[in-house]
Specification:
This protein is mainly beta and 128 residues long. The strands form 2 sheets. Strands 2, 4, 5, 6, 9, 10, 11 and 12 form an 8-stranded mixed beta sheet that branches. It starts with a strand and ends with a strand.
Length: 128
């Protein structure tokens, strides 16, 4: 079955760095876009970054220049490197798979059925 398992995260001081990793199985990983979302109010997930199936990466304006993507299709992994973290980055982060021809939408219900698979979520806490 489609499965995504997250690792990483934790607590850092403002200006510090963290890496989140998503390990996938049960689908054609190399064909899928992988989105990184943060959970806002209620069950709303906001798109932060995309690891494109074509090797490109895209980032929301709020994290552009601070977050970068690494993708290894041979290992079915995607990592999000988060640098110069700010207190407003504090949130639960999810990775999610979008099967072709779909791409991760900017807003979606966290763990919702619109996307084909979700990680379990991981807490990122940034203190001032």
């Amino acid at each position: 079955e489609v499965q995504l398992v997250q690792s990483g995260g934790g607590s850092v001081q403002a200006g510090g760095s963290l890496t989140l990793t998503c390990t996938a199985s049960g689908f054609k990983f190399e064909a899928a876009d992988i989105g990184w979302y943060l959970q806002g109010t209620g069950n709303e997930c906001k798109l932060v970054s995309i690891a494109g199936h074509d090797g490109n990466e895209h980032h929301a304006d709020s994290v552009k220049g601070r977050f970068t993507i690494s993708r290894d299709n041979a290992k079915n992994t995607v990592s999000l490197q988060m640098r110069n973290l700010k207190p407003e980055d504090t949130a639960v982060y999810y990775c999610a798979a979008a099967f072709p021809p779909g791409t991760p939408p900017p807003f979606v219900y966290c763990s919702g059925g619109y996307l084909q698979g979700w990680g379990q979520g991981t807490q990122v806490t940034v203190s001032a």
